[in-house]
Design goal:
Blueprint lengths: L3 E8 L5 H12 L5 E7 L6 H8 L4 E6 L21 H14 L6 E5 L5 E2 L3 H5 L5 E3 L2 E4 L2 E4 L1 E3 L6 E4 L16 E4 H6 L14 H9 L6 E2 L1 H4 L4 E2 L9 H8 L7
Parallel strand pairs: 1-2, 1-4, 2-3, 6-12
Antiparallel strand pairs: 4-11, 5-13, 6-11, 7-8, 9-10
The structure holds uridine-5'-diphosphate (UDP) and manganese (II) ion.
Uridine-5'-diphosphate binds next to strand 1.
């Protein structure tokens, strides 16, 4: 049997949340040996996420970890101003370290709730020995941001990134997986708040690996199996009026 893929998904309440999590859950149902770690950015677990997970048919762990108010993105703040998902991904890493050990065969993947995942991605994630990398579509100002790697050996020789190419690891959050044994070995590796925007990936990766030991996957980093899609917030002007009258059309 292959390793269990532990996918860590931070998520927060907003109108599209149920749609996003539904889309993800139905992709994840296609993946063997899958364990979804869903971390709500909230002070309590919500009924919406609780019910969605209970009826998903997936193996999952549901936790909540609110972003400290000081770090929370305001409604009109530009999205690069504060890091998102830090508290939630760290809570999931702590859960993993408290609940899994060397006897488990697993790979950790950070799966944001708005991206688009091909079922073929998970075959690549399952190959990760220590730290694996692959291309991500629609990110960094490119159709595809990718590691450059040797097809035969998987050795990574560079990156095509043009957005902040001086990042220690110029890769999106969706573009790497870390074997469980590495997460357990490097037991203090976590994400952090007070770092430059766009450097979260580098922050965790520099604590667990070096550029020259990355494993390039997805057919020599030639295939795109994940896209950094972002969902447009829906127009709900009429709903706002209905809510004021206590007559929301809501779910
Ligand atoms: N997220 C969160 N709380 C927030 C904003 C975002 O938990 O206040 C989650 C979000 O649901 C997603 C992840 O953090 O799973 C990354 O956020 P986003 O997709 O907005 O980041 P971007 O696509 O801009 O990198
Ligand atoms: Mn996103």
């Amino acid at each position: 049997d292959g390793p269990t893929i532990y996918a860590i998904t931070p998520t927060f309440t907003r109108p599209v949340q149920k749609a996003e999590l539904t889309r993800l859950s139905q992709t994840f149902l296609l993946v063997p040996n899958f364990h979804w770690i869903v971390v709500e950015d909230s002070i309590k677990k919500t009924p919406l996420v609780t019910n969605l997970l209970a009826s998903s048919g997936l193996t999952y762990t549901h936790i909540n970890a609110p972003t400290p108010p000081h770090y929370k993105l305001g409604k009109n703040d530009p999205n690069w101003e504060k890091p998102r998902g830090v508290e939630q991904r760290n809570a999931a890493l702590r859960w993993i370290r408290n609940n899994l050990n060397e006897s488990h065969n697993g790979v950790i993947y950070f799966a944001d709730d708005d991206n688009t995942y091909s079922r073929f991605l998970f075959k690549e994630i399952a190959k990760v020995k220590r730290v694996g990398v692959w291309p991500v579509g629609l990110v960094g100002g490119l159709m595809v941001e990718r590691p450059i790697c040797d097809k035969a050996t998987g050795k990574v020789t560079g990156f095509n990134a043009v957005w902040k190419p001086d990042r220690p690891f110029p890769i999106d959050m969706a573009g790497f997986g870390i074997n469980l044994k590495v997460i357990l070995e490097k037991k203090d590796a976590l994400f952090a708040y007070e770092i430059q925007s766009g450097f979260q990936e580098s922050e965790i990766l520099k604590q667990v690996t070096h550029r020259d030991e990355l494993e390039g996957l997805a057919d020599g980093c030639s295939k795109v199996y994940v896209w950094h899609t972002r969902t447009q917030p829906p127009v709900l002007n009429t709903e706002t009026l209905l809510i004021k009258k206590g007559k929301s059309s809501n779910q």
